[in-house]
Amino acid sequence: MNNIMKKSVARKPSRKNNSWTKALIIILIIILIGLVAYKIFSSPIKFSPIVCTDTDGGQNIWIKGTTTGIRQAKLQTVTDSCFNSTRVYENYCVYDRIATNGTDCPAGYNCKDGACITNCIDTDDGYNIYVRGTVINFPIVMSDVCSTDYRSVVENDCVNGHWHASLAACPSYYCEDGACFVAGT
């Protein structure tokens, strides 16, 4: 009966068990931190490579181009432009970066709309005595004309980007409407 009458007494945890529990929790936390760190640092970092592109193929003053790449620590798109009538700002790629070079157009060329262009335009594509052409070299506009005796033609063309005129004898000895006449036509 003595056993029945005994009161239940709550046992006080021993200090020994409490220390083991704390140590086990610390070990589990360290393992968990290690697993998270492993997952973070073992995953490959995916970078999206920046590629610089230039639509005119690089340093090309003859074609207006658009360049996309890094400039001032940002991805940007820039277009070739004119500084003045004879100087072009040419954009091009150096690795993934945009570089700009101010370049003077060669003699006889002007900068227009981001490219160096000739000052002189010949509608018959150069020296051609059999086709009447017109040379436009601002402010000069000259068309091919027959000589007063109709045996030769004053041929206007472009030489080194500038207007040039010369007198050419017609092989058929006949000029009509600013061009040498071709026999049989």
Give a quick set of tags describing it.
185 residues, alpha+beta, three-stranded antiparallel β-sheet, 17% helix, rod-shaped
**Number of DSSP-assigned strands:** 16
SS content category: alpha+beta
The largest β sheet comes out as: 3 strands, antiparallel
**What portion of residues is helical?**
10-25%
Q: Give the SSE order as H and E letters.
A: HHEEEEEEEEEEEEEEEE
In the predicted model, the low-confidence regions spanning at least 5 consecutive residues are none
Q: What gap, in angstroms, lies between the N and C termini?
A: 145 Å
Strand ordering within the main sheet: 1-2-3
Q: What would the average pLDDT be, to the nearest integer?
A: 84
List the helices and strands and how they pair.
Layout: H1 2-5, H2 15-42, E1 53-54, E2 66-71, E3 74-79, E4 81-84, E5 87-94, E6 97-104, E7 109-112, E8 115-118, E9 121-122, E10 134-137, E11 140-143, E12 145-146, E13 152-159, E14 162-169, E15 175-176, E16 179-180
Antiparallel strand pairs: 1-2, 2-3, 4-5, 5-6, 7-8, 9-10, 10-11, 12-13, 13-14, 15-16
